[in-house]
Amino acid sequence: MLSVCNLRKRYGDTFVVDGIDLSVARGECFGVLGPNGAGKTTTLRLLLGLIEPDAGRITLAGMPVPARAREARMKVGVVPQIDNLDPDFTVRENLIAYGRYFGMDRGAIGARVPALLEFAGLAHKADAPIAELSGGMKRRLTLARALVHDPEILFLDEPTTGLDPQARHLIWQGLRRLIAEGKTIVLTTHFMDEAERLTDRLVILDHGRVVAEGAPRDLIAAHIEPAVVEAFGEGVDVWAREHAGALCERFETVGETLFCYTAQPEVVVAALRAHPALRYLHRPSNLEDVFLKLTGRDLRD
After folding, report:
1. Under CATH, which architecture does the 2-217 domain have?
2. Are 244 and 262 in contact (CB under 8 A)?
3. Phi, psi angle pair for 184, to nearest 5°
């Protein structure tokens, strides 16, 4: 469904996208992760033909981009970072108007609207103005709108940012249904648990380059020890200097928290129990640990 080879885009002297290669199979949920400024948004704009690359080759839904970008986008559904619903239309009218952009006649759109409203959990709000919807409802409607023309591939740009946990889980439930139905999805997100839950494979971008690629569990196994013990409290720096090197395969102190990465967490926990002033959390390693190891902990603005 999507093939990218040696994709490059430069602004001034800086390569924002610097030699990216990736491919997405039909029916796959593919994640694109990266810190702010890593090149995610520029990459998506290139893939959709909204800007032209300086070099590289893109094939989207079987068509070359940007040469046939308009035709390719007829087969694509997009959920942008920020909801851009029409405030002058009702929920139902937003779906109808969007379908018309894709050349669908009213009969075809009308046949799809009830199922889309049900999918979004908005059947009871069909005739409500957009101003009456909560943030979660607007996000679900934006997702349903992207499906109105039954696209072959969906691009979701941080679909759950700004939502509360309940709304986020409803979006995840809807995305799982789409994945089960064989829909192809390209997902960008800052939520590592979202990527772990939904994606079959993913890439991590940093400074415009792919720094890791694979299935979430495979990346965790390849880059991080099996367990993490986080310790914090007064004197944690002293404890780290005296004990962490001998007890952990790898450790780092960030602010007032010590992160011990280890295959034997019980040994670390036993040592920490001898220091009641310190609190600790023992957990399995996860995709966020991989992300931070590969891209660093420095804040990106």
Report:
1. 3-Layer(aba) Sandwich (3.40)
2. no
3. -85, 130
Longest Cα–Cα distance in the chain: 73
Euclidean distance between CA atoms 254 and 61, whole angstroms:
44
pTM score > 0.70 for this model? yes
DSSP lists the bridge partners of residue 213 as: 203
Q: Is 86 helix (H, G, I), strand (E, B) or coil?
A: coil
- Rounded to the nearest 5 degrees, what angle is found at the Cα of 232, between the Cα atoms of 230 and 236? 110
Q: Which of 226, 257, 261 is nearest to 245 (CA)?
A: 261
Q: What is the DSSP letter of 295?
A: H
CB 117 within 8 A of CB 126: yes
Q: How far apart are CA 37 and CA 181, in angstroms?
A: 33
Both structure tokens of 41? 């948004």
Residues composing the chain: 301
Q: What is the Cα–Cα distance from 213 to 207, expressed in whole angstroms?
A: 15
Report yes or no: 45 and 94 within 8 Å, Cβ to Cβ: no
Q: Are 79 and 155 in contact (CB under 8 A)?
A: yes
Return the domain boundaries, the chain. Answer: 2-217, 225-284
Structure tokens at 33: 């992760």
Cα–Cα distances in Å, from 242 out to 81, 261, 275, 280?
46, 16, 12, 17
Q: What is the mean pLDDT of each run of 10 residues along the chain (301 residues)?
A: 97 94 96 92 95 97 96 96 93 96 93 94 96 93 95 94 88 92 94 95 96 97 96 92 93 92 96 93 96 86 64
Question: Which pair of tokens denotes residue 178?
Answer: 């789409």
Distance of alpha carbon 4 from alpha carbon 79, whole angstroms: 21
Q: What is the C-alpha to C-alpha distance for residues 76 and 89, in angstroms, rounded to an integer?
A: 23
- Tokens 């390209």: give the residue: 186
